[in-house]
Amino acid sequence: MARLSLDATRQQALSVSLATGAYGLSFGALSVAAGLDVWQTAALSLLVFSGGSQFAFVGVIGAGGGAAAAVATSTFLGLRNGFYGVGLAPVLRPLRGARKAWGAQVTIDESTAVALAQPAEDLPARRAGFWWTGVGVFVAWNAITVLGAVLGSRIGDPADWGLDAAAAAAFLALVWPRLAHRRAQAVAAASCVLALALTPIAPPGVPILAAAAVAIVAGWGHPRPEEVPE
């Protein structure tokens, strides 16, 4: 049974890794269109490695916002990954040295979701879910990001191909499967309305920050469920 459990977890991790990595194609193309070159795009994926934060960064830059606004928006959205460590600590303990640093780098939505979706009493499955998903997404995301950046540097203006709205669509696709509860759906809708209302009047990056602030305040004191649908 233990072997079957691990095999099922690894299959789940692989499917999540491939599905998530595919969005790297859109990110790579949009990053180049926003003014970053292929190497800068690759470095952003390698070092930041947080899809929502990366899309927010290039979205602000592409809209004409400054580097400070882009970094602030990206950082704000990336803070959630730090909180995942609280739920994952019993699963990953003990981690030291390079392994600890590597674990921190691959602590993302997907690795957390797959790990905590396994039975609480099956610690090996939870650990397998975390590492297989985290490393799998890391490899797929970075490889496909480079492909997207190379293709994006050759297609010209993304608007000519209907890709100018791809950042918002990809971000929604990453977030939507997690909105499994009415409260989360209501908070997401309120944040979206606020961001849309502020877009015509606020500097680039501010609407996203305001929407994120609404989500954080509304979600305060309501812990994330352990089983997150992917």
From TrEMBL:
<dbReference type="InterPro" id="IPR011606">
    <property type="entry name" value="Brnchd-chn_aa_trnsp_permease"/>
</dbReference>
<dbReference type="Pfam" id="PF03591">
    <property type="entry name" value="AzlC"/>
</dbReference>
<keyword id="KW-1133">Transmembrane helix</keyword>
<protein>
    <submittedName>
        <fullName>AzlC family ABC transporter permease</fullName>
    </submittedName>
</protein>
<feature type="transmembrane region" description="Helical">
    <location>
        <begin position="12"/>
        <end position="35"/>
    </location>
</feature>
<feature type="transmembrane region" description="Helical">
    <location>
        <begin position="55"/>
        <end position="79"/>
    </location>
</feature>
<keyword id="KW-0813">Transport</keyword>
<feature type="transmembrane region" description="Helical">
    <location>
        <begin position="130"/>
        <end position="155"/>
    </location>
</feature>
<keyword id="KW-0812">Transmembrane</keyword>
<keyword id="KW-1003">Cell membrane</keyword>
<feature type="transmembrane region" description="Helical">
    <location>
        <begin position="192"/>
        <end position="220"/>
    </location>
</feature>
<keyword id="KW-0472">Membrane</keyword>
<comment type="similarity">
    <text>Belongs to the AzlC family.</text>
</comment>
<feature type="transmembrane region" description="Helical">
    <location>
        <begin position="161"/>
        <end position="180"/>
    </location>
</feature>
